[in-house]
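Listing 4. Sequential folding, example run.
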Amino acid sequence: MLWLWILLGVIGGLILIFLIALFVVYHGTFYTPLKGQNNDFVFTAATEKYCDIEECKSMVKRLVEYPYEDAYITSFDKVKLHARIYRQNSDTVCIMFHGYRGTPCRDFSGGAYDMIKMGFNVILIDERGHMNSKGHSITFGVREKKDAKCWIEYAKKEFGEDKRIVLIGISMGGATVLLASDLLSEKDRVIADCPYTTPKEIISNTLEHTLHMNPKIFYPIANLTSIIYGHTNLNNDDANEHVKRSKAKILIIHGEDDSLVPYKLSKRVADENKDKVRYELFPGAEHGLSYIMDKKRYQSIVEDFLK
């Protein structure tokens, strides 16, 4: 019998090592927040390389200090979510979704301020697991799109059923608003900056081109960790299918030199939905930097689209 107990011990040890290895992958990819993640004044390497950091800090500080109201809702899966509310006398409510491990005041330091100055009501949300929202798993838009539904319902209850809803997102937030686009009516609008189309394609692209790992082998492992520890299967959502069903007009903005989310990942949506999607490419712009690289053109496009 001793050999049986030894065998069971070896098998149990191997399973434990496997589960620990999976958790390390989950922690690095999906767990939130990591140390320092919620600091509004920590910028990406691309931002530091291509942008005037002092100007960026000034823009962030301007929004951080702008007067707002706190708002809290409970998500479909009982997670407490937070947002900043900028209330104005307007028939439009902009709901803004920041990026992966981003902060709303950093990612929308220019965009949210523009919406406020245009006179719109703004709901600047903290994605689940970020800033003052609870939760510890990032799901690349799968659960976040359901959070978007909750924020839309909140906006209509708080500001009125007749208000025009504008969903605005950047990076993962951009994918989220595309995934939620079929919740909207004809009068509503969607603006997605540097979005991807599916969680699988962006994770696979990062594995292949950033980490130099075979996505055919390592993506299933990453998804398995999301299923086990984050209780979310990333294989079952495609923003393009939601856009096809959407009644709203959609603006997609993407930097031509985006090395994190190549513009081809969003171009497919525009090519297959030309009747409802306007596509604007920004030459020379890295990931999430189209606004900074050509602010005047960016603001003009957005203002024209929202008219």
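-- end of first protein; second protein begins --
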Amino acid sequence: MSSMDFDTVVVGGGSAGYAAARTLVAGGHRIAVVDGGPEIGGLCILRGCMPTKALLHAAELRHAIAAGRTWGIEAGPVTVDLERLMARKDELIRDFAGYRRQQLEQGKWEFIRSKARFVDPHHLELESGRRLRTRHVVLATGSELAPPPVPGLESIGYLTSDSALQLRQLPASVIVLGAGAVALEFAQFFARLGASVTVVQRGPQLLRECDSDVAQELEGALMDEGISVITGATLQRAEVVGPRKRLWIERAGSVQSIEADAIFHGLGRRAAVSTLGLEAAGVALSRSGKIQIDRQQRTSASHIFAAGDCCGPKDIVHLAIQQGEIAAKNILGQSVSRDDRLTLSVVFTDPAVAVVGHTERSAKEAGLEVRVAAYPFNDHGKSMILGCRRGFVKLLSDRTTGEIVGGACVGPQAGELIHEIVVAMDCRMTAAQLAAVPHYHPTLAEIWTYPAEELM
């Protein structure tokens, strides 16, 4: 080991850090995994994907039971015991987190429960004062809630994606700030459990990275359920008025106020990097405050890599795992690069939204000439049977080669359906080749064949 204690130190034991650690160990590296979080498991397991999707499933069940009357099925009033709902969610998360804790504690590495900071490019100092000497570092510290950019909101109190997971009483009304995946998923969760919900978005549309037709379709579906949507709003201040909370906004030159029992801060998260002492290691940040990386996950310091939410470009678990593995493989000398063609996003609303590869907007910005075709779910047999009359699928193909370069789905099971296009794009299939693949009838998946045929 020369003068080094470790070949690599991985800072962070979430999805990205664990993926890097197991890959490095398989490659023969002597490593340490350092995690200073209050709990072991990472954001996805503890406060992200798993608990939120458990809550969304419960809300979907209530909504589906209430919709049974369309088929002559009457269940009577559908009530919600929030204590039991949260207890079931907690039970699931204990199982997930327990398994990850076991993996970290019993892995073939030294597992250290501590925060760490750089004192120089090859030395990390722990809270105990111990210093770790290492040839390489993988930073996988994840993200944290960003402070609310609304004057007065900090003092009056607000819900977040963390605190909402611990609710034991549902507020009668909620103002949701933001219109990204987390904000909209929680907005529909609150609404389907019986709360009055208003979504306030600063930009001109929901889901700002999506094409406008995708955003508008979801907005219409949410409004059909009674959710109010306000876009193009400047957030001015928040205050308490008796037992309620008031938000002042400016929109189209007019100042107005909205009141509710609670305000949910869904305006995003930031990279958890402030305590790492990155300056001492020569690690640069991007303008967004995330660790700057190249396609090999390498930072501005050639021996230091980053993976997951602390570097982006998207805070998505499967991407974090891929990045952790890519970082580790490059440390092991394998020269692997990230394939951004297959960048995938899913919003677990109902209808769900899923996008892979290029949108129409990003294709235009990249100078790529594409053909576009779409097909609606309200003209598709299986979705009509399911009562899903909102949404559509859309394919983008290269105008010259016919290769599929992007896809979007707003509709039932969009998060599952989009993977057909992920596989097609991974194999560099043309629209004609996708159209020729047999699809069983009646299924949701066969809807992709209609825009594919149009693009042949």
